[in-house]
Specification:
- The complex is a heterodimer of chains A (114) and B (114).
- Chain A has 114 residues and is mainly β.
- In chain A, 0% of the residues lie in helices and 54% in strands.
- Chain A is built from no helices and eleven strands.
- In chain A, the strands form two sheets. In chain A, strands 2, 4, 5, 9, 10 and 11 form a six-stranded mixed beta sheet that branches.
- The model of chain B has no long low-confidence stretch (mean pLDDT 91).
- Chain B is mainly beta and 114 residues long.
- The chains are: A mainly beta (114), B mainly beta (114).
Chain lengths: 114, 114
Amino acid sequence: KNQVEQSPQSLIILEGKNCTLQCNYTVSPFSNLRWYKQDTGRGPVSLTIMTFSENTKSNGRYTATLDADTKQSSLHITASQLSDSASYICVVSPSNFGNEKLTFGTGTRLTIIP
Amino acid sequence: NAGVMQNPRHLVRRRGQEARLRCSPMKGHSHVYWYRQLPEEGLKFMVYLQKENIIDESGMPKERFSAEFPKEGPSILRIQQVVRGDSAAYFCASSQSQENYGYTFGSGTRLTVV
């Protein structure tokens, strides 16, 4: 069964600190992995998309890594800001094409405190 | 350039009533996907539509649920004879082509069945 597991479930850190969120997946075949940010009451917003041949991708203070051999990904957030408080969702796609369903993790709820 | 528009944002229905959720994709997008998010769970795929065609409805319950994406107008997700278990956030995403890199989500409709 295709699954995406994220850890930790929740995380609280002080403003300005760094943090790393983890994602393990068993989706096969595998085409691409995305990290989304979902603010409370809003839809998910894409942060990064990586194919199996990419090891790392950055988007500002967000850096995602991917190890397709071990089926693990991480999202590193540097110099956290209060606006980073949100759920971060790891999503895996078996295909680049829309008729293959995305598999969503349940997310890590990140809280930044001043 | 408006993003994916969903309405209403919040919908309250009594058990047994019908719920109609609307999704207007981004301009130029002809592929629409519906997802359901139960409390404390990840998003689950329901149905994938192109203009006037249902491409994949494997994630949608066989009874009471239906979806359409007419030639003119928004995509509609219809839930007949709602039950308490239908209470969830329903998200719509759209993309320009079958290639799902450009997936964009709406802000969702929160359905509460009382």
